[in-house]
Structures are given as C-alpha cells and as structure tokens.
Amino acid sequence: PISINSPAAMLPVCPHLPRMPIVGLGVWKAPPEVTAQVVYDAIKLGYRHLDCACDYGNEEAVGKALKLLFAEKVCTREELWITSKLWNTYHAREHVLPALQRTLDDLGVEYVDLYLIHFPIALQFVPFEKRYPPEWTDNGNDGIMKFVNVPYRETWEAMEGVHAKGLAKHIGVSNLNVQSVLDVLRYAKVKPACNQIENHLYLTQSKLVDFCHDMEIAVVGFSPLGAASYVGMGLAEASEDALKDPLVLKIAAAKQRTPAQVLLRFQIERGISVVPKSQNPARLFENLELGTFSLGAEDMSELLKLNRNRRFNDPAVYAKGWGEPGSWLAKHGYPLYE
Asked: What is the pLDDT of residues 98-154, one digit of tens each?
C-alpha cells in the first residue's frame, strides 16, 4: 500500500475512473536500457500508474522492473494500474488478442487495467517474428505506410473480446475527436472507459474534454508538459516551451512550486489524468507532489487563455515522409484531427 506520507496519497481521484491514479509515469521515449531502473525508482517513490504501449519498445524492460518490485514486496500487482495500447498493425479482429498477449508476456502480468487503441489508423499487419514493435511503415520508421481496410468497429469488437476474457479490465480509445467517440458509443457493448489525448497548456481541447466527461469517459492527457518532448524530434520550437511561459513562471514563484508542477496541477484541476515522463528521480518526485497546493479559479482562468491549439504529436506533419511520391499522404501527411 502507498504510505500516507507519500505524495501520491494526497492526490485527488480521476473523474469517471476512480481506481486509476490521476498521476502516472509515462514511458514513451524511455530507452529500454534505462526503463527498468526508472520504473523501479518511480514505484518506490509511490507511483502506482504506468502508461505503457507496444510501440514504445520497452515493455520487456518494464516487466523486469515489475518482477523485481513484486519479489521485494514493494507492491502487489493489484496495487498497480497498468495501461498499454494496441498498435496500428494489429487492428484486424484476429490480431488483437495475440497483440495483447505479447504485451502481457513482455510485462510479465496476467492482465492490464486499461487497454487502448493507440491510433484510429489501421496499417498492414507485421508478424512478431519479422519486426517488433512494427512502428509506422513497412520498414520500421523509414519506409512507406501501408494501410488496410479494417473498420474501427471491427477493432473495437475485438477489444470487447479481450475485455470479456479478463485480459483487459477496462478498454478505451486514444487520439479520437468528439465525432469519433460518438460513433463508437453508438455500437459499443462495452463503453470506452478512457480517451487518451495530447493535452497541455497550449492544446487544452476543452470542448473534447468536457464532452468526454459528460459521457462519463475519463480523459488522460499525454505530453502534459508540452513541447519539451518534441523539440529534439524537430516537431516543436524551443520558444514553444510552456515551462518557460511567463505566466507559468509567475504562478510557480508565487506558489513556491516548479513550472512543471504548475502545468501538471493545471491538468488535474481540469479532471485530466496526466502521465509525465522523467528519468530523473528528483523530477519523478516533483511530478507526484501535486496534492499539497491548488491553483484556484483566477489562475485557472488565466492559464486557459493561453491555449494556442498547438498540436505537437501530429501525423499530418511527421507522416509526409512515409507516403509514395505524389500520393495524398506525401502531400498532406495524415491529417487525423482535421
């Protein structure tokens, strides 16, 4: 159990998914060689929510950390919330169960608490033995995106199948807009428990967040600190760093908190679960220590005005290089959010 002295013990619950800790550890971009240590450190600090995915390429390393943590009785499996995600190449009905089973085997667990469809993009199947994780194209991330005609409904029904087997306690979606969520709700026998979306100071998506909450669907915001993860990838400019925004710095100074803590608390007060990533133990602790202060109505109002509708994780930008010369993909990328 989490110690009452842990900062995690003072955090609010996540609206509509109260068993999921509202602050989790994201492991996107964590190199496999350091992932096990990062996860081990985070759980020892009090984290109980891990945000994983096949595509991150480090679930085996997460599993090594979990095995050690369970052996040392730091926590039990039941005390953790583990999320993973179905990759684009496994959308066909017959591939969903094997994809989840591979994730479970890598993590060394019998079930995940939440399994999400990572993107509403169906790509050509890649066998495990050929390449795992498959990434975006027919040659990792250096080839051509190959699409397949698999309706989202087929994938969702297969997700309901793994839920029925108890392999995923909850199932959900990711990177969906209002219309796409509404479509799923029209045929779903098991309602999506969550929509995980890019969400930060410069991309608040307030209408989508409000809609999900009205539908009693939890919202998890990835990249809650904004541009920092994307500058090195060429998808953001250093000048777009919300950690250096003058209003954020002003509030942080007044509250005697770090800019990162202000940005994360901003999301929590909107009822959004956050999954920041860090390999630094001090920052891991700071990112969890969000329950001892609040921003209040005035600060929240001013921060919300800073929205720029600036999306950093956008396949309309980075997928252009993965299209056949002259194709719509090469011209426009994949404008998923248009």
From this structure: 999 999 999 999 999 999 999 999 999 999 999 999 999 999 999 999 999 999 999
CA 323 to chain centre: 26
Token pair, residue 231, equals 């500058």
Burial pattern 184-223, b for ≥16 Cβ within 10 A else e, equals: beeebebebbbbbbbbbbbbbbeebbebbbeeebbbbbbb
What residue type is assigned to position 179 of the chain?
Q
Show the tokens assigned to 178.
């209002």
Question: Six-digit token pair at 182?
Answer: 């509404």
Number of continuous H segments (helices) and E segments (strands) in the chain: 12, 8
User: Active-site residue numbers?
Assistant: 56
- To the question of pTM greater than 0.85 for the whole model, the response is yes
Distance between CA atoms of 37 and 62, rounded to whole angstroms? 9
Are 261 and 290 in contact by the 8 Å Cβ rule? The answer is yes
- Contact predicate 72/105, CB 8 Å: no
Side chain identity, residue 301: S
